[in-house]
Specification:
The chain is mainly alpha-helical. Helices cover 61% and strands 0% of the residues.
């Protein structure tokens, strides 16, 4: 079933909103969240794309509804993994600002 392309600004807003919510409730260091999110995407991309068929999805294109489904799944799978048993205390790496 062909679906229309998503509005890119809206798709980005949805992804950022979920990411910001995880950061706000402090369930995991965000550097750890990024690593876990990458690992889930890496593990799940090939099986998902193959199940759709060749050319059915453009990797990295959030306006593509098939890719948006995939990346949303990966993000929420990561969130679910982190929220089930969050540590009560953790250390989080912060960027160093030069000046």
């Amino acid at each position: 079933v062909l679906r229309p392309r998503m509005n890119l600004d809206f798709a980005v807003l949805l992804m950022r909103s979920s990411y910001n919510a995880v950061d706000e409730i402090d369930i995991v260091p965000m550097d750890q969240f990024q690593r876990d999110f990458f690992l889930i995407r890496q593990a799940e991309y090939k099986p998902y794309s193959e199940s759709l068929g060749n050319g059915a999805m453009i990797q990295g294109d959030l306006a593509d509804p098939n890719y948006f489904d995939f990346i949303s799944f990966a993000q929420y799978a990561t969130i679910n993994r982190e929220i089930v048993n969050p540590p009560s205390v953790f250390e989080e790496q912060q960027p160093v600002e030069g000046g």
